From TrEMBL:
Keywords: Lyase. One of its GO terms (molecular function) is lyase activity. The keyword Lyase applies. NCBIfam families: PRK15084.1. InterPro entries: Formate_DH_maturation_HycH. Pfam families: HycH (PF07450). This is Formate hydrogenlyase maturation protein HycH. It comes from the Bacteria.
Length: 136
């Protein structure tokens, strides 16, 4: 049985509907996209980064012990998944950037990709990441 952590990134949103939306209601559609799932808005996530379980644990161990960033990333082992959104960008970007000097080349590549995804969230606050532990 292999385990891994998959980071999926929001790629697009759409409204689950069968009928065309009248032009006069289009503004309501845009508002619905902004406020979320309970209105039938579906988020489409795409896998952006996959780490083997043991290597994920070693990677997050390079983050400063006791830091908010490390506690956030330890949510995957603790809860099975975490969401990373605009509120976490500065904290995580700083932590992963600072940790790169002590990381293996593979971990540095993951950190580089993480920093890129965090930059995407910074540029467009509607984007978020879902990190989930998967077992085969």
């Amino acid at each position: 049985m292999s385990e891994q952590v998959v980071f999926s990134q929001l790629s697009r949103k759409f409204i689950d509907e069968n009928d065309a939306t009248p032009a006069e209601a289009q503004q309501v559609v845009y508002y619905s996209l902004a406020i979320g799932h309970h209105l039938g808005v579906i988020d489409c996530l795409e896998a952006a980064l996959t780490c083997p379980w043991d290597e994920y644990l070693a990677w997050i161990a390079t983050l400063e012990a006791g830091s908010d960033a490390r506690r956030k990333m330890e949510g995957v082992p603790k809860y099975g998944e975490i969401v990373i959104d605009f509120n976490h960008v500065q904290m995580l970007a700083r932590a992963f950037d600072e940790a790169r000097a002590a990381q293996t080349p593979q971990q540095q590549e993951w950190s580089k990709l993480m920093l890129s995804m965090l930059h995407d969230i910074h540029q467009e606050s509607a984007i978020y990441l879902m990190a989930r532990r998967l077992r085969d």
